[in-house]
């Protein structure tokens, strides 16, 4: 993949960065965020009518859950009549986080970090100094690979800080958390008065991909049930569509704390995604140019949108893959056929880099890519005169293991295979080459004879 010179498009930086929009990022979040009017209205109504919230925000990976949560936090942090404090760095759900003490430390540490960014003089307050000590020692022990930060023999009690051989209890941490929420409500932060705190926890998609992670998550929400009922704290938990049904709803005592309808996030429309990219490019336009040049035509975005069912992260990553295949400067946006040809080449190069296919294996893969229908191993045995065991082990197994092909359906107990979504562009490589060649011929005929 070649480095991409974004300046050739009149852009300062990459407009297709797959990281979520965030407060303080290269893109102004209140300008770059597009769409979601119904979801924003729902969230505003919920926050305006309640003094605490526990809400699950559910949807497929890459659909835009994190950007929505970050935008909502930003709006309520700076523009609403009832302001709510938040930290720009969302808390990432992982195995280490799923216990009450670690969860509280993460929240406290994230709040302190945000205060340090916005109004560092506040850290001179005795409570915040004490909480900073707790977070510091916890971080140091975590970095050193040591044991629990709370069995280290340091007492950070509510009244004074002394060195005594007692542990910091979860109850004491809860009290400190409540003290911190009250501090936020009773002290101006960078000149603003806040009425509460938003806590945003991300990436339950990854945790819930295993049975062990599901069990740990169920236990975790039972353990933090009392924390979730803290007045003036608004919790947003982001994850897959089954987060509420399979995790929150398991125990009625946990379910009763949550808003009973999860906010389900569906993909943006094609036009909304095009508009979002245009807004990003306008925000990243170089100061010395009159206008930017679109790297690809809108039809390219529509094509990739259909491939990935609106997964904006995959769409942006694919556009970067396309542009990384072309090192020369582009005089105009890439057409659909040009872009699909480049994306197909990128996917083929990726395959050659991750597995060293023999010529025979490449021949089988080309056949699978060019086929108009799904293919069974029996067909490969017959067409290429191979043994059944050889087709299964030598040809299909490495392609399945590297997620290049997958089982698509079963007919009469016979499985049929096709390319995964990531490698569908191999089909486009074949078709687009024909169309690009035809386009070259047509354009050549239109040139003056002397050229």
Automatic annotation (TrEMBL):
Source taxonomy: Bacteria, Candidatus Staskawicziibacteriota
Protein name as catalogued: Orc1-like AAA ATPase domain-containing protein
């Amino acid at each position: 993949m070649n480095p991409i010179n974004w300046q050739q498009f009149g852009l300062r930086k990459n407009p297709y960065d797959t990281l979520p929009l965030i407060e303080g990022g290269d893109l102004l979040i209140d300008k770059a965020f597009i769409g979601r009017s119904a979801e924003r209205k729902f969230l505003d109504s919920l926050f305006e009518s309640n003094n605490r919230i526990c809400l699950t925000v559910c949807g497929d990976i890459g659909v835009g859950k994190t950007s929505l949560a970050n935008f909502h936090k930003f709006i309520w942090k700076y523009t609403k009549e009832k302001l709510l404090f938040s930290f720009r760095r969302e808390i990432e759900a992982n195995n280490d986080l799923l216990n009450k003490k670690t969860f509280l430390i993460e929240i406290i540490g994230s709040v302190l970090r945000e205060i340090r960014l916005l109004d560092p003089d506040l850290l001179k307050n005795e409570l915040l100094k004490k909480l900073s000590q707790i977070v510091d020692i916890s971080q140091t022990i975590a970095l050193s690979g040591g044991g629990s930060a709370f069995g280290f023999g340091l007492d950070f009690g509510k009244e004074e800080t002394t060195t005594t051989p007692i542990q910091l209890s979860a109850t004491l941490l809860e009290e400190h958390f409540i003290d911190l929420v009250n501090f936020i409500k009773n002290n101006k932060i960078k000149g603003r008065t806040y009425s509460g705190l938003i806590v945003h926890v991300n990436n339950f998609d990854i945790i819930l991909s295993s049975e062990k992670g599901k069990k740990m998550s169920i236990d975790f929400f039972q353990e933090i049930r009392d924390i979730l009922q803290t007045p003036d704290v608004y919790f947003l938990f982001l994850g897959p569509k089954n987060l509420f049904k399979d995790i929150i709803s398991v125990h009625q005592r946990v379910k009763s704390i949550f808003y009973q309808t999860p906010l389900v996030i569906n993909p943006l429309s094609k036009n909304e995604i095009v508009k979002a990219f245009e807004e990003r490019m306008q925000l990243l336009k170089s100061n010395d140019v009159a206008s930017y040049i679109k790297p690809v035509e809108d039809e390219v975005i529509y094509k990739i949108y259909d491939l990935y069912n609106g997964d904006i992260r995959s769409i942006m990553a694919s556009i970067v893959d396309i542009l990384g295949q072309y090192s020369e400067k582009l005089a105009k946006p890439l057409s659909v056929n040009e872009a699909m040809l480049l994306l197909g080449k990128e996917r083929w190069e990726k395959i050659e880099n991750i597995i060293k296919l023999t010529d025979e294996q490449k021949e089988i893969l080309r056949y699978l890519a060019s086929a108009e229908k799904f293919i069974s191993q029996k067909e490969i045995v017959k067409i290429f005169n191979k043994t059944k065991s050889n087709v299964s082990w030598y040809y299909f197994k490495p392609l399945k293991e590297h997620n290049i092909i997958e089982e698509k359906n079963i007919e009469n107990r016979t499985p049929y295979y096709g390319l995964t979504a990531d490698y569908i562009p191999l089909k486009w490589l074949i078709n687009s080459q024909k169309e690009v060649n035809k386009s070259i011929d047509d354009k050549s005929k239109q040139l003056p004879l002397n050229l």
